[in-house]
Design a protein that fits this description.
This protein is of the alpha+beta class. About 35% of the residues lie in helices and about 25% in strands.
């Protein structure tokens, strides 16, 4: 049996009284013609005295966020999706019955107002209420207005309350779709086609990650929630679509922290006849397009740093970046024994499946370089061992034509000159299976249908994956991924901490 607080009991009594008056406590359709911020923008420059000769009638609706009840006249404010606006209500304008109804209202109730735009002596744009309509009775009180939801976990868990009380949360919620719209506009303009590919798959491919496993009852078949979008999109290149992208949810059965959520939004794009350099140019142009189109600026403060997206972005190889900091030139390291000695000297632990020169180069990068890449940097020239789907560099086959975009010390994108040699691709898949035998539980399966697709011929291509949530974190200047996902994954209320 639920127990109600004193405030909740009072609100439920008011709900019953509304019903006794023949009113629907939870409302019906209400036709409005204006929004709070639009009204304030339109009328803010008009002087107080000028309103005496005007008759601007508007109809608005929203949630009551403030009430100052007085005798025969009161002030309250309502909040819609654009913000708050003040309402003046008087018994002389709406009549005794309506004014009495208004005086039963609580913070959080949703109401409709038709009235005349005016301005108070203090200069605040206000609506003088001529018609007041009760729409929805809020049965739970809002959090204390100055603090809202102070428990951060509760903010994410009860996002609906967070959006009511927290202007910054609402700002981010509305900015994210604008960012996605800008991305789609950009991709469409440069010739891409947006597509959709399966979320359920029978193979673990496209990235190195632990999957979520589900079960198809009819086929009695275990399936994975996709961890990447890559291989189906590359099949479309084989089919002749030439320039495709998808923005979709992917699922990785891993931990949660301020930069990671088990389900997140990924965009992957593949362009026939392009390469690594083409993907760098595209990425830099897309980020600058978002900055200009959505924000009108290029500098964003993120995780303690001012990130400047203007100018030409830095491009550096992984081995050169390590050499800049440690003095070690891994291009001169010829065998794994020498690499292992360097790792031991620098106190870097190497797992059994990482005992290759390529893996050790990556471990050095993660320890010494990654967190230093604050301004936008394209890091290219990854070892072949950590890039199973990437084309080898024709000048030095120990490395592949791949880059990662780093901003603020974090990865934002991962791109390749795509591997389209089916013989080489099959060898890479087989190497992944060997790594799985050595304990790498994130190694890929062999996708023989993809090998067959490559045998029909895939054009040379560039491909890239963008972490959309992290991109939105940068542009909205949010430090946690849970601020840019409306409903992030949360621990169960009754679960263990």
């Amino acid at each position: 049996m639920r127990e109600f607080t004193e405030q909740e009991l009072v609100r439920r009594e008011k709900m019953v009284k509304l019903q006794e008056l023949g009113l629907d406590a939870f409302g019906q359709r209400f036709d409005r013609d204006s929004y709070a911020q639009d009204i304030k923008d339109k009328f803010s420059s008009i002087e107080h005295d000028e309103f005496e000769n005007r008759n601007d009638i508007v109809t608005v609706a929203g949630r009551i966020m403030f009430i100052r009840k007085m005798g025969k006249a009161s002030f309250f404010s309502i909040q819609d999706k654009t913000g708050k606006i003040q309402i003046y209500i008087s018994i002389n304008d709406v009549g005794e019955d309506t004014y009495t109804l208004f005086k039963t209202a609580d913070l959080g109730d949703i109401v409709g107002v038709k009235g005349k735009v005016m301005k108070t002596k203090t200069g605040e744009v206000t609506i003088k209420c001529l018609e007041y309509t009760h729409l929805v009775k809020a049965l739970k009180p809002l959090p204390e207005k100055f603090h809202g939801l102070t428990d951060i976990e509760e903010r994410y868990r009860r996002r609906y309350v967070d959006l009511i009380m927290n202007e910054d949360s609402k700002r981010v919620a509305f900015e994210r779709p604008k960012i996605l719209k800008s991305i789609r506009n950009f991709m469409d303009e440069v010739g891409y086609t947006e597509v959709e590919t399966p979320v359920l798959t029978t193979l673990l491919t496209g990235a190195s990650a632990r999957p979520f496993v589900t079960h198809h009852n009819t086929q009695d078949l275990d399936m994975y929630l996709r961890i990447a979008l890559e291989l189906p999109l590359k099949r479309l290149l084989v089919g002749g679509m030439e320039a495709v992208y998808e923005i979709g949810r992917v699922f990785r059965n891993e931990g949660m922290d301020p930069k990671h959520n088990p389900e997140f939004t990924l965009m992957e794009a593949y362009l026939a006849y392009s390469d690594l350099e083409g993907m760098m140019d595209q990425t830099e142009a897309m980020y600058k397009r978002i900055a200009e189109e959505v924000y009108g600026r290029y500098v964003f403060h993120w995780c303690g740093d001012d990130i400047d997206l203007s100018g030409k972005w830095k491009r550096i190889s992984m081995t050169d970046s390590i050499k800049e900091i440690t003095g070690i030139d891994f291009k001169e390291v010829k065998d794994v024994e020498e690499a292992l000695r360097l790792a031991e000297k620098h106190h870097i632990e190497v797992a059994d499946h990482e005992k290759t020169v390529g893996h050790i180069i990556n471990l050095f990068f993660e320890k010494y370089v990654e967190e230093t890449l604050i301004q936008p940097t394209f890091l290219y020239g990854h070892p072949v061992e950590i890039s199973p789907l990437t084309k080898k560099n024709p000048e030095d086959p120990r490395f592949v034509d791949r880059f990662e975009l780093f901003i603020g010390g974090k990865e934002f994108a991962n791109a390749y000159t795509e591997l389209n040699d089916p013989v080489d691709q099959l060898e890479r898949f087989e190497q992944q299976l060997k790594e799985r035998d050595l304990g790498n539980d994130e190694a890929n399966d062999i996708d023989m249908d993809f090998i067959e697709a490559l045998e029909y011929g895939m054009p040379p291509a560039g491909g890239i994956g963008y972490g959309i949530d992290r991109l939105c974190m940068l542009f909205t200047e949010s430090d946690s991924i849970r601020d840019v996902i409306l409903f992030p994954t949360m621990k169960d209320r009754g679960g263990k901490e």
